[in-house]
Amino acid sequence: MPVNQQILLDNRPQGEATVDNFKLVETATPALQDGEVLVRHHYLSLDPYMRGRMNDSKSYAASQALGEVMIGGTVGEVVESRHPKFQPGDQVVGMGGWQLYSVVDGNAPGMLRKVDTTHVPLSYYLGAVGMPGVTAWYGLVKIIQPKAGETVVVSAATGAVGSAFAALAKARGCRVVGIAGGAEKCAYATGELGFDACIDYKAHPDLKSMAKALKEACPDGIDGYFENVGGYILDAVLLRANAFARVAVCGMIAGYDGQPLPLANPALILINRMKVEGFIVSEHMEVWPEALTELGTLVAQGKLRPRESIAHGLQNAPEAFLGLLKGKNFGKQLVQLV
Amino acid sequence: MPVNQQILLDNRPQGEATVDNFKLVETATPALQDGEVLVRHHYLSLDPYMRGRMNDSKSYAASQALGEVMIGGTVGEVVESRHPKFQPGDQVVGMGGWQLYSVVDGNAPGMLRKVDTTHVPLSYYLGAVGMPGVTAWYGLVKIIQPKAGETVVVSAATGAVGSAFAALAKARGCRVVGIAGGAEKCAYATGELGFDACIDYKAHPDLKSMAKALKEACPDGIDGYFENVGGYILDAVLLRANAFARVAVCGMIAGYDGQPLPLANPALILINRMKVEGFIVSEHMEVWPEALTELGTLVAQGKLRPRESIAHGLQNAPEAFLGLLKGKNFGKQLVQLV
Asked: What is the mean pLDDT of chain A?
């Protein structure tokens, strides 16, 4: 059996996460039992939710246990199989974690899924046609429920979720406004991702400035907001929200490292008769087939062409992950493992 | 025509509202035109929403104009009619405002409604079987959508909305926990209104203490919350909320006088995958018939027997209103005008 490399959560962050929270180890891959499949990972997905798992606090998911392999989505190829449904050479997506190989129970529902790479590159199954894409789909379609002509806004606009959000919202006839960090990302959002406008939060670092920028970018107000960051950007969106606006709360990356960030004026939820709803996409597996079909079609049609930020080698995953938390990535953050 | 007395909004509050914001005037009631009805008001309803109208700021409704009669719900009797649908002696509910008489266009839809006082006292049409009751109904039935066995919490528990909420939630098999100010109100909530438990917020004046009290009163967590007050009570509820909890935001009375009160940890909306939704009941007229039918039936069956706080004489309306904002009322606050 091949030698595996794994990255474990070694200790929990005190405030900001650091590379010292992780540990790289080598282990043998175990011999397969009946029904098991050995997968060699080609790409590992890095996603903001992983930061929440590193804390030992109440969250929507169990904490990542210390000393265990970091959780994470992976795509790769079956290299050995003792399950009739999987053959060596099959391309598969799963939750293999931060390691080179994983052994998967082929009978466990939803743990390993064969994918078709005729029209969709393998790595996209971790992004636009994977969990981030479905996340955008759920927040837009099920919570925001946009009508044609409405204005919708998304933070972290050039990331995996934001770029899928833009394509899905444009397909529904919305005005789509992004919020991203830096002029380069904003130019990419409007030039390549289909955003109608994009606000550089680094140029608008406070509530008043951001609210003014939103007013200019959203002359008809905001009907829907997909929240990835929290903090003063959410406060500014609430100030510009229309009556009956909907906010899908997917992430609050700004508050992951320390003290909770308050919401300045929750009375606006009443004043604007808003709906603010948190969700985690893995609790809504019933929508995945419909969402993946639409997302795959948008990719095949060239309407969703997300950029990828690719780090190389498992040993570089921690640094790439910490960069993601600071917005250093440009598009979907992956680690290539082959 | 009889001489009318009216209370006008004379000037806007700077911070806390005072009696000096109001002015009492006498005017003649105008002669009726064809289609008009003259109503003598028996009771005027005082409600927290009126405080929001006194500010000159963006809210869900237009500001109350200076120099005009304060808005308000009224019940009374038709004393003169030039509309075939209304006869002298008819008992009616409407939005007559803070005055002894009103002239109403009998053709305007929804402006004046005849009511039956066989099983329901006339004043109840301003409370349990009126706007406050329907408010409780909408928040509970349409936003919280409780299942039998769930725990629901309401602040301002012994007020007009809270008491209706308790009866409606008990009818749906919920555990109902109230939050009210003072031991006497709490004893009334559990002894007469059907609450399973009631927390005295004066005995729990900070987040930590309130969260502990909620934990004891809600051993299975909180599935639904009807928000009338805002501030640290909402923060505490979020700390005790179950996954997929729903919050109906009806009022934030704690923040009406000055600076907005922040929400300490909005990330809990995500962590608990909550839905937080603001509403104003006058925008959902489609539910009123169904809601009023249920509320009237609960009253007729003796399952909803709300207390009323009755001030006497129009001149005492401002002081009674200011007392309502401070929780000095006990049950539905009315002003008797006859």
From this structure: 94
